[in-house]
Design brief:
The protein is of the alpha+beta class. About 25% of the residues lie in helices and about 25% in strands. Bound molecules: fe (ii) ion (FE2). The site of fe (ii) ion has 8 residues, from helix 5.
């Protein structure tokens, strides 16, 4: 290994060290200590865009949630694609909030499904982007263009760190680099969005909260080996130092391993039910993410774990360890979406059939009273 290779690897290792302070803060029940854990009476979570649209997916009332499906509107199906977008509507007393989390891959998919599902983006009280991959932010720049001037004043987009706005690449197993693009923070701000990097657990819209940056506490969850970040100039927000390195010889334009330092989860505390944790793409690990939300809030009861768990490419051993950890956490429901993979869905069905809710674009899950 030459010095450059060593230093590149050091950039990744250094990330763990440099992030320690952030993670420790996140682990001290940060929200709980400040008395800031919001509780909602009800959460209606709509998967606006997901990888599949199953017109035969079953809905109905389960023990403590209601699952509603959206049949093909006027014979025209909702659109599914490799991407994720949610509409989150929460109620506390007479107070109602709407949050848009992630923004699918294509604008045409997102706006079509928003219209069918009667989601008006201009009603949003806050926006959250989970991380900087194209299948989550893809439609956001165009959305901010068409909604410019219609958003509520001071509308804020919550990201989890600088790397949300850095250039990303995925190198597929054949060695081909797939460009994940770069979300343009300046462009979003120019169109009226306020951007906040929520590195610590942060309350959003008074009802939801983010996990903050997520400590890697399990020994089996690893960032995808295929993921890369393109290093920016040393004095830029995308310089390798922002990925955790303090001494590194990586030239701008070179690729470094992507540790998803700035990926965060979104969560709610639903009255008399517990935590609903939404991982989005779960590169930080679904178990790491859930445990971080438990630590940040001081609340142990998990009502539901939702999202892409990014286990589709994972070996059986990792799937088994994840499912074992699910059993330990013992959520009431598991809703595996997007990049979770059939391997994990089958394992959850085998081990915890009553907890499994199958995903489908257009699904509305009602948590709480
Ligand atoms: Fe994803």
């Amino acid at each position: 290994m030459n010095r450059r290779q060593f230093l590149k690897l050091g950039a990744v290792t250094g990330g763990t060290v440099a992030l320690g302070g952030v993670w420790r803060m996140g682990g001290r029940a940060a929200l709980a200590q400040s008395g800031a854990v919001p509780t909602v009476d009800r959460l209606v979570m709509t998967s606006v865009v997901d990888n599949i649209y199953d017109i035969f997916a079953k809905g109905g009332k389960l023990d403590t949630i209601t699952v509603q499906r959206t049949p093909p509107p006027g014979g025209r199906p909702l659109l599914a694609e490799h991407g994720l977008a949610y509409h989150l509507e929460s109620i506390r007393g007479a107070e109602r909030r709407e949050i848009l989390l992630d923004f699918a891959y294509r604008m045409s998919t997102l706006v079509y499904n928003y219209a069918v599902l009667k989601v008006e983006p201009a009603n949003a009280d806050a926006l959250i982007i989970s991380h900087g991959h194209l299948d989550h932010y893809g439609a956001l720049p165009d959305l901010t263009l068409v909604a410019q001037g219609k958003w509520k004043p001071g509308l804020t987009l919550y990201g989890g760190g600088e790397d949300t706005f850095c250039h990303r690449i995925v190198v597929n197993p054949a060695g081909v680099a797939v460009d994940q693009g770069q979300l343009d923070r300046t462009g979003l701000e120019a169109r009226g969005l306020k951007v906040v990097l929520a590195k610590q657990p942060t309350v959003v819209g008074g009802h939801a909260f983010t996990s903050g940056q997520i400590p890697r506490t399990t020994d089996f969850e690893r960032p995808p080996a295929a993921a890369r970040l393109v290093a920016g100039p040393m004095d830029s927000a995308c310089s390798p130092t922002h990925f955790g390195a303090t001494r590194v010889e990586v030239k701008p334009g070179e690729l470094v391993s992507d540790t998803f330092q700035g990926e965060h989860a979104t969560a709610y505390h639903v009255k008399d039910r517990g935590l609903v944790v939404i991982t989005s793409c779960g590169h930080a690990g679904v178990i790491n993410s859930t445990r971080q939300v438990q630590k940040a809030t001081g609340i142990q009861k998990v009502h539901a774990i939702v999202g892409g768990f990014h286990l589709a490419p994972a070996p059986d051993e990792i799937v088994a360890k994840t499912v074992a950890a699910f059993k330990e956490i013992n959520p009431d429901y598991i809703i595996p979406m997007h990049c979770t993979g059939m391997n994990t869905i089958i394992a959850v069905h085998r081990e915890m059939p009553k907890k499994l809710v199958m995903p489908s674009t257009g699904t509305r899950v009602i948590f709480g009273a």
